[in-house]
């Protein structure tokens, strides 16, 4: 029997950092995916392979350990934690292939986790639905990372654009918001935990300045929700630019991120901003009619990916 599953990457459109202080956020699934295949092993060992990143390891799933044959560890921790929760330790071959850059702020860890759990549930004929899968995947991210927001695994499971309200209620946008986006990413990956802590310290030192900014970021996200519902791309772009300014105020932008953001705007993006925790990582640029111009401008110094929001969430099936 072969079980296959795939799940999309995500990008945060509005609300990173302010969401930590219970302000709303908007994130969406993009059309880059992680694909997992599980089949019985031909030997008595379980093997995990990810040829795209040159990774191979023997899995000792009972002990939550692995023996590295090729590549750099990291993403395998999400696979092991998923196996620990959903596998009976019989020998299997797991293959990951992915067109999501790993560790660049596009939620590769969540996409891999959601796809791995869905494939394992199929393989073992365990009943699941999107709600239980999103929950289980969040538990895996939390166990591996210590802390994790539920947003990445939620978006990766359901697909589409998601609005998280001030009281943590999840709303799925029904509207198709599929303007083209260019993601620009640097080789440096920001450390999310450190960035969140830096913002907290800045806020504690300057409460009268930073508290109203955090509130304004939340209000901005709510304006953005209305603009998305009306498919008003220009308004969304304007709000992305203001959001980038706020992220500058709270100190998470870097030379590379700002360079990409301004290169994108000069080349015709109607909005561009840092996405995710900052301190490295990625930017997104909204660029209807100007994708190639914007992509070329960013690619002069940094790496790019052309994406669109997609309604397609996790998908999985078995082949007997
Ligand atoms: N070449 C690689 N091979 C294997 N693992 C890697 C490689 N590069 C990064 N990793 C690991 O992949 C994981 C990526 O997860 P992480 O949550 O940091 O990034 P992300 O999910 O892509 O972005 P974000 O969560 O910020 O949206 C990390 O554990 C990292 O150590
Ligand atoms: C910076 C942050 O808001 C988003 C990181 O992708 C942190 C979080 O929500 O956990
Ligand atoms: Mg992640």
From TrEMBL:
Organism domain of life: Archaea
Keywords attached to this entry: ATP-binding, Cytoplasm, Isoprene biosynthesis, Kinase, Lipid biosynthesis, Lipid metabolism, Magnesium, Nucleotide-binding, Transferase
Biological-process GO terms, alphabetical: isopentenyl diphosphate biosynthetic process, mevalonate pathway
InterPro entries linked: GHMP_kinase_C_dom (IPR013750), GHMP_kinase_C_sf (IPR036554), GHMP_kinase_N_dom (IPR006204), GHMP_knse_ATP-bd_CS (IPR006203), Mev_gal_kin (IPR006205), Mevalonate_kinase_arc (IPR022937), Ribosomal_Su5_D2-typ_SF (IPR020568), Ribsml_uS5_D2-typ_fold_subgr (IPR014721)
Alphabetical list of Pfam families matching this protein: GHMP_kinases_C (PF08544), GHMP_kinases_N (PF00288)
GO-annotated molecular function: ATP binding; magnesium ion binding; mevalonate kinase activity
Substrates-to-products reaction catalysed: (R)-mevalonate + ATP = (R)-5-phosphomevalonate + ADP + H(+)
Compartments in which it is found: Cytoplasm
Main localisation: cytoplasm
Domain GHMP kinase N-terminal, residue spans: 79-160
Required co-factors: Mg(2+)
Matches recorded under PROSITE patterns: GHMP_KINASES_ATP
Pathway(s) annotated for this protein in UniProt: Isoprenoid biosynthesis; isopentenyl diphosphate biosynthesis via mevalonate pathway; isopentenyl diphosphate from (R)-mevalonate: step 1/3
EC number(s) given by UniProt: 2.7.1.36
Residues bound to ATP: 101-111
Quaternary structure annotation from Swiss-Prot or TrEMBL: Homodimer.
Functional description taken from the UniProt entry: Catalyzes the phosphorylation of (R)-mevalonate (MVA) to (R)-mevalonate 5-phosphate (MVAP). Functions in the mevalonate (MVA) pathway leading to isopentenyl diphosphate (IPP), a key precursor for the biosynthesis of isoprenoid compounds such as archaeal membrane lipids.
Family label: Belongs to the GHMP kinase family. Mevalonate kinase subfamily.
UniProt protein name: Mevalonate kinase
Species in which this protein is naturally found: Methanobrevibacter gottschalkii DSM 11977
Name of the gene this protein is made from: mvk
């Amino acid at each position: 029997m072969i079980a296959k599953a795939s799940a999309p990457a995500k990008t945060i459109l509005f609300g990173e950092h302010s969401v930590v202080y219970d302000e709303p956020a908007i994130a969406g699934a993009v059309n880059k995916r992680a694909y997992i295949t599980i089949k019985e092993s031909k030997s008595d060992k379980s093997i995990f392979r990810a040829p795209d990143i040159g990774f191979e390891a023997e899995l000792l799933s009972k002990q939550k350990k692995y023996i590295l044959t090729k590549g750099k560890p990291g993403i395998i921790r999400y696979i092991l934690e998923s196996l620990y929760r959903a596998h009976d330790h019989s020998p299997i071959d797991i293959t990951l292939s992915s067109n999501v850059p790993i560790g660049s702020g596009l939620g590769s860890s969540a996409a891999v986790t959601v796809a791995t759990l869905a494939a394992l549930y199929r393989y073992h004929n365990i009943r699941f639905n999107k709600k239980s899968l999103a929950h289980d995947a969040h538990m895996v991210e939390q166990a591996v990372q210590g802390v994790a927001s539920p947003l990445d695994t939620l978006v990766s499971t359901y697909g589409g654009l998601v609005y998280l309200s001030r009281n943590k209620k999840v709303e799925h946008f029904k509207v198709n918001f599929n303007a083209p986006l260019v993601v620009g990413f640097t080789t440096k990956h920001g450390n999310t935990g450190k960035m969140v802590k830096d913002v907290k310290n800045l806020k504690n030192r300057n409460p009268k300045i930073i508290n109203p900014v955090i509130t304004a970021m939340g209000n901005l996200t709510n304006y953005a929700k209305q603009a998305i519902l009306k498919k008003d791309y220009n308004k969304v772009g304007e709000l992305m630019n203001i959001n980038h300014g706020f992220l500058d105020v709270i100190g998470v932008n870097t030379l590379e991120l700002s360079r990409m953001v301004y290169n994108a705007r000069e080349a015709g993006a109607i909005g561009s901003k840092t996405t995710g925790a900052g301190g490295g990582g990625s930017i997104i640029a909204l660029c209807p009619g100007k994708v190639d111009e914007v992509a070329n401008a960013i690619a002069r110094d940094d790496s790019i990916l052309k994406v669109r929001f997609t309604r397609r969430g996790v998908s999985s099936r078995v082949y007997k």
